[in-house]
Write a structure and sequence with these properties.
The chain contains ten helices and eleven strands. The protein is of the alpha/beta class.
Length: 274
């Protein structure tokens, strides 16, 4: 898959040079709600340093970000998962050539209410809960209460990572409470002692209890090494190699200053920073 994308780079660069990507002084960013805090914070800092540039940032999910990149309604598509084969095909058919820019690392962390006595959970137990085979907390060492399953909707890159790495391709049980964002998952779980959800590490807060998975704590170290069972890369995609303000913005995001901002937002930089 990644080789397919790399093979499009040269063509994408040529298209970008010939046609340009953004209107002067304006950059549009759409997509992943996981990447959203990074994009918003980076946009705010970048615009302060570059008063002539206007950056519009919105969420909607990784899938919607890819759709916007394919139809030309965004300059940057935030995505919490890599682009799919079918999205590459649709993009090329639309004379667009997606280029990935890795901007951060992340762990997708299972979270419960702080009153839940559980501290660790296995991948097999998570699969059982989210597929509907495990229905009661007592089956995994908790109280004799029905598990309230909270999940992301199918347009979410976080859902797709969870589906792949936890469910192994199985589907989430039909009665799961589907939420449109990481923030919504956090809010629901923080108010329900019997709920379980999952979200990016940057969204874990004092109102939630992050569970270890297979005994591994979600942390910058386990994200960098990939030892946390549900770790991933976070991306910003462009049509062809970026130019102008889009390129300057992306260079800022991956610079030491931008990566400090990634760290400040609770995510993991792509390289060690001082």
């Amino acid at each position: 898959m990644k080789r397919t994308i790399l093979s499009l780079f040269a063509m994408g660069m040529l298209i970008a040079c010939l046609t340009g990507i953004t209107s002067a002084g304006t950059v549009v960013i759409k997509g992943s709600t996981t990447v959203l805090p990074i994009a918003q914070a980076a946009a705010e800092d970048f615009m302060k340093a570059n008063p002539g540039v206007s950056i519009s940032v919105s969420g909607g999910g990784s899938g919607n970000g890819m759709k916007a990149l394919i139809d030309g309604s965004t300059d940057i598509a935030d995505s919490s998962r890599f682009i799919k084969d079918k999205e590459v095909k649709m993009a090329v058919e639309n004379n667009r050539f997606p280029v990935p820019h890795r901007v951060a690392l992340d762990c997708v962390v299972p979270v419960v209410h702080p009153d839940n006595p559980l501290r660790n959970i296995t991948i097999d137990q998570l699969k059982g809960i989210y597929s509907g085979k495990i229905r009661n907390w007592k089956e995994v060492g908790g109280k004799d209460k029905k598990i309230v399953v909270v999940s992301r909707d199918t347009s979410s890159g976080t859902y797709e990572v969870w589906e792949s790495k936890v469910l192994g391709g199985e589907k989430v049980l039909p009665e799961a409470m589907l939420q449109a964002s990481n923030g919504a998952v956090a809010q629901v779980v923080s108010k329900n002692p019997y709920a379980i959800g999952y979200l990016g590490i940057g969204y874990v807060n004092a109102e939630l209890k992050a569970l270890t998975v297979n005994g591994v704590v979600a942390s910058p170290v386990t994200a960098l090494t990939g030892s946390f069972p549900v770790s991933r890369e976070l991306f910003m995609f462009t049509n062809g190699w970026p130019t102008g303000d889009t390129l300057s913005f992306l260079n800022y995001v991956v610079s030491p200053e931008g990566q400090k901002l990634v760290q400040r937002e609770g995510f993991v930089p792509i390289y060690a920073i001082e």
